């Protein structure tokens, strides 16, 4: 298959692995920020083929996982209102809030619908002028342009019964927060290629220089990841800390300026609370004042929602890269993709789901278990 097979060539993978083994002389810890990259690494077993000292740390790049509990709870409250048609991408329907999920709201009679683009939600609003249509606008820099376009389209078309519940997050401030954490172990990053396709990589340049970390813009296929890891390790071995682009077939340094422009027009940068991580300054997007009429949060006055995290879920440590899913006592027993206790087991990009779907098992911890 053109543009896929050439990035999954086993012979080339063996060559890259050999080069990596020849390059790495010391232990290094590299974080892949994106959940899509985590899935490729784990599904293909790439993390287990690396030289013994090279450790991949799985980062917080799953949009469903980092959406804060209080926003999920607001979504549940809004979706339960009789006048509302609540629209969302499919993954969000199973993410547990404090008391259930959006599927549960639908089972109790709420009008909750899966859409594939935010423009579908605008179309539903046009078809149902007597109802309030809300779109759950979550995600990183990748989904922000389409969501911004939907708001602009609704504004231009005078569609007043459409609004968005916004919980957008931005990657560079999260990387900075991870590097500032006292327990940080990350020495180099693979930056998500699709985020950089939109935003370019200029925002990473001051981070690489200030924290002396290599950052390699990387794609999502097995060979992309192997080459990205090799580029990061080569920089670490040589004492360099630059932004390099492995994903040249899709990413330019300045990104997609037209997409950036529509995001700048519709949204403003704000502090955002990351589920499991906490508040990070300038790490989120909220609607700009000009478009505040489209803010579902204020339209439905969702104040007073009480949130309660599941105490068994260690998603925060997993999203910060300080623990693995197999360290969680509920992993694979009380928490599975069919019975998820936390967002990382729900989402297609969640680290716990990646581990579970690839059959990773917790390491035996006692003599009896080893048998
Ligand atoms: S395995 Fe389940 S309970 Fe444990 S951290 Fe992952 S999502 Fe949370």
Structure report:
The protein has 18 helices and 11 strands. The chain has 371 residues and is an alpha/beta fold. The longest helix is centred in the middle third of the chain and has 17 residues, at 222-238. It is globular and about 65 Å long. The structure holds iron/sulfur cluster. Iron/sulfur cluster (SF4) is lined by residues 312-315, 318, 325, 328, 330-331, 335, 340-342, 344-345, 352.
Describe the structure concisely.
The protein is built from 18 helices and eleven strands.
SSE layout and pairing:
Blueprint: H1 10-23, E1 28-34, H2 35-43, H3 46-49, E2 54-61, H4 63-66, H5 69-79, E3 84-88, H6 102-107, E4 111-114, H7 118-127, E5 132-139, H8 144-157, E6 162-169, H9 171-180, E7 188-192, H10 193-199, H11 204-211, E8 215-218, H12 222-238, E9 243-245, H13 257-266, E10 267-274, E11 278-287, H14 296-299, H15 315-319, H16 343-346, H17 351-357, H18 367-370
Parallel strand pairs: 1-2, 1-7, 3-4, 3-5, 5-6, 7-8, 8-9
Antiparallel strand pairs: 6-11, 10-11
Bound molecules: iron/sulfur cluster.
């Amino acid at each position: 298959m053109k543009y896929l097979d050439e990035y999954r060539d086993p012979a080339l993978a063996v060559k890259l692995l050999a080069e990596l083994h020849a390059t790495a002389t010391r232990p290094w810890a590299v974080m892949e920020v994106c959940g899509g990259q985590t899935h490729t690494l784990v599904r293909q077993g790439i993390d287990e083929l690396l030289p013994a000292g090279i450790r991949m740390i799985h980062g917080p790049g799953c949009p469903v996982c980092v959406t804060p509990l209080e926003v999920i709870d607001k979504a549940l409250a809004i979706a339960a209102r009789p006048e509302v048609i609540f629209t969302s991408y499919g993954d969000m329907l199973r993410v547990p809030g404090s008391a259930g999920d959006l599927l549960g709201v639908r089972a109790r009679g709420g009008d909750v619908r899966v859409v594939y683009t935010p423009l579908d939600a605008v179309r539903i609003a046009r078809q149902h002028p007597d109802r309030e249509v809300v779109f759950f606008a979550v995600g990183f820099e990748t989904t922000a342009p389409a969501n911004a376009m939907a708001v602009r389209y609704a504004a231009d078309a005078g569609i007043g019964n459409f609004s968005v519940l916004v919980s957008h997050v931005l990657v560079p401030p999260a990387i900075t927060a991870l590097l500032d954490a006292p327990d940080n172990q990350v020495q180099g990053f693979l930056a998500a290629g699709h985020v950089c396709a939109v935003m370019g990589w200029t925002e990473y340049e001051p981070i690489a220089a200030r924290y002396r970390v290599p950052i390699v813009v990387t794609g999502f296929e097995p060979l992309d990841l192997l080459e990205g890891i090799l580029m990061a390790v080569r920089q670490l071995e040589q004492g360099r800390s630059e932004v390099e682009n492995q994903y040249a077939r899709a990413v330019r340094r300045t990104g997609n300026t037209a997409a950036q422009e529509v995001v700048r027009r519709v949204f403003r940068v704000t502090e955002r609370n990351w589920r499991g991580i906490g508040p990070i300054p300038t790490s989120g997007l909220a609607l700009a004042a000009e478009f505040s009429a489209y803010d579902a949060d204020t339209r439905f006055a969702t104040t007073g929602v009480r949130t309660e995290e599941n105490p068994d879920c260690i998603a925060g440590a997993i999203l910060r890269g300080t623990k693995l899913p197999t360290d969680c006592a509920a992993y694979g027993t009380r928490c599975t993709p069919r019975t998820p206790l936390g967002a990382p087991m729900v989402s297609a990009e969640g680290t716990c789901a990646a581990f579970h779907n690839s059959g990773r098992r917790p390491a035996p911890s006692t003599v009896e278990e080893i048998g």
